[in-house]
Design goal:
Elements: E1 2-3, E2 7-8, E3 18-23, H1 25-28, E4 33-39, E5 44-48, H2 50-53, H3 64-73, E6 83-84, E7 100-101, H4 102-107, H5 111-121, H6 123-133, H7 167-178, H8 186-196, E8 197-200, E9 205-212, E10 217-226, E11 229-238, H9 248-262
Parallel strand pairs: 3-5
Antiparallel strand pairs: 1-3, 2-3, 4-5, 4-11, 6-7, 8-9, 9-10, 10-11
Helix pairs in contact: 3-5
Length: about 260
């Protein structure tokens, strides 16, 4: 992997963040997208396609990270096995057609489960939590979503609607949460971390959440953990020409290649 020398940001802070540019073109292999890595130990950001990394877009299902914490913190749910009962609707995704635990709903990215959590927490509390986190534009004005999905409970402000966040802001929010700079309890953060685990080797663990749109938009955000040190990442794909083949799993696969190369 080719990368430029890091250069410090010029400001008056005692410790200024540093920035570097990554060449990940061989990994992205023609897919339009971006990647940002953040090393909190050295306060260093590494970018691939920095302009896109700074553009605010819909978080899609990566917002389930926040939904989970909000539900736990407000005692709508209590742990990984907190169950919400199925209402009998036949959803296109078979895994959603049944009673679901938090862990299963998170890992199958079940919208109706988290729609119920969000509604139970309420707009005022969600707005407050987003503002504390500086979560993108913090705009939940389109609470019920834009209605593009004919199934009412499969819409929401985080799904191609009013709420937007950049990949850069994603890693900053994740860092606040997992570096214990947020208002969420250690217990609830530990529950979230447990259900975010997607890949584990002898030397490294990868935690994350996918997100998928319908026009070639896809996310994978989270962090890697190696020898007790974290590196946060956000990979965002935006390639309408390849929309039939791009989804959150595509972004996750690219991330696993990137983190392996970076190791």
């Amino acid at each position: 992997m080719q990368q430029s020398d890091s250069t410090p940001q010029e400001n008056d802070d005692i410790k200024s963040p540093t920035f570097e540019t990554l060449d990940l073109s061989s990994i992205f292999n023609g897919i339009n997208g971006c990647a940002i890595l953040f090393d909190p130990q050295n306060d260093q950001y590494s970018f691939y396609n920095q302009e896109l990394c700074e553009q605010e877009v819909s978080p899609y299902s990566t917002f389930k990270i926040i939904s989970t914490l909000a539900g736990l913190q407000n005692e709508v749910i209590t742990n990984e096995v907190s169950t919400i009962n199925y209402n009998g609707t036949q959803y296109a995704i078979p895994e959603w057609n049944g009673n679901l635990t938090l862990e299963t709903a998170f890992q199958t990215s079940c919208i109706w489960y988290f729609r119920q959590i969000i509604d139970a927490v309420g707009a005022d509390e969600i707005a407050k939590e987003l503002n504390v986190l500086s979560y993108g534009n913090c705009d939940i004005s389109e609470w019920n979503g834009n209605g593009e999905n004919p199934v009412e409970e499969l819409n929401g402000f985080w799904l191609n609607s009013s709420l937007k966040i950049s990949p850069l802001e994603q890693v900053q929010v994740l860092s606040k949460i997992f570096e214990k700079e947020s208002n969420y309890s250690e217990k609830n953060i530990a529950i979230l971390k447990n259900i975010m685990l997607v890949n584990e080797t002898d030397s490294q663990k990868i935690y994350g959440k996918t997100g998928s749109g319908s026009n070639g938009d896809a996310w994978f955000v989270g962090f890697s953990e190696k020898q007790g040190k974290k590196q946060y990442f956000a990979i965002y794909l935006n390639d309408n020409a390849k929309k039939e083949t791009i989804n959150g799993n595509t972004a996750k696969e690219l991330t696993l290649k990137i983190t392996t190369t970076e190791s």
